[in-house]
């Protein structure tokens, strides 16, 4: 029997600290839209521990969508929607075109995405969050960031070099620049939380 599940080692390491933040900052009701769900491991771990909410995984990569579906079969939960294809760089997201779930979405979560993607993906994420989130809706980002233009640890500097060797458009982003872009979309920076392995949780609220 084939198993299409993919595994990301970082998920096992970061899921508990991320969940602790999500349980504190996410709205108590509504649908949580996850951008770039990857393997799907975060989806099946978070959703059962966020009662009262639905979890909507998305990705642009077909193999990731297959993996997410496989994880949902392996670890079913009644508050996870089937994954959908979503290109964060599109001017209009697929859920907007098809008018799916829009009235339900109260938060957007994006974990380890904006540094493993062109800068246009961060711009697209902020623009989409600005369009879709209701007033007081939450945008949650997780990953490594530079602060004041400087890496926060030698390991992050090395990771940044490796990312750029894979694709010159990738790289660890400057937190202040991300906050400035968010502000242009009426997303107010609320809080930055230090996380294990020199990562950050960054929380915005739609105003």
TrEMBL record:
Alphabetized InterPro entries for the sequence: DUF938, SAM-dependent_MTases_sf
At the top level, the lineage of the source is Bacteria
Would you tell me the protein name for this molecule?
DUF938 domain-containing protein
Please give the SUPFAM superfamilies that the UniProt record associates with this protein.
S-adenosyl-L-methionine-dependent methyltransferases
| UniProt cross-references to Pfam families, sorted A to Z | DUF938
């Amino acid at each position: 029997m084939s198993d299409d599940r993919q595994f990301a080692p970082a998920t096992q390491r970061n899921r508990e600290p991320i969940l602790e933040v999500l349980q504190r900052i996410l709205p108590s009701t509504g649908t949580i839209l996850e951008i770039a769900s990857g393997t799907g491991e975060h989806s099946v771990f978070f959703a059962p521990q966020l009662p009262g909410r639905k979890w909507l995984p998305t990705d642009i990569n077909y193999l990731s969508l297959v993996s997410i579906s496989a994880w949902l079969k392996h670890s079913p939960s009644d508050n996870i929607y089937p994954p959908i294809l979503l290109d964060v760089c599109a001017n209009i997201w697929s859920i907007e075109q098809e008018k799916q779930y829009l009235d339900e979405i109260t938060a957007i979560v994006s974990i380890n995405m904006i540094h493993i993607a062109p800068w246009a993906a961060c711009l697209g994420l902020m623009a989409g969050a600005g369009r879709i989130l209701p007033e007081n809706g939450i945008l949650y980002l997780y990953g490594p960031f530079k602060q004041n233009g400087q890496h926060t640890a030698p390991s992050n500097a090395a990771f940044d070099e490796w990312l750029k060797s894979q694709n010159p458009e990738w790289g660890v982003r400057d937190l202040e620049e991300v906050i400035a872009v968010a502000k242009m979309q009426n997303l107010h920076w609320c809080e930055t939380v230090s996380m294990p392995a020199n990562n950050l949780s960054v929380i915005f609220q739609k105003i």
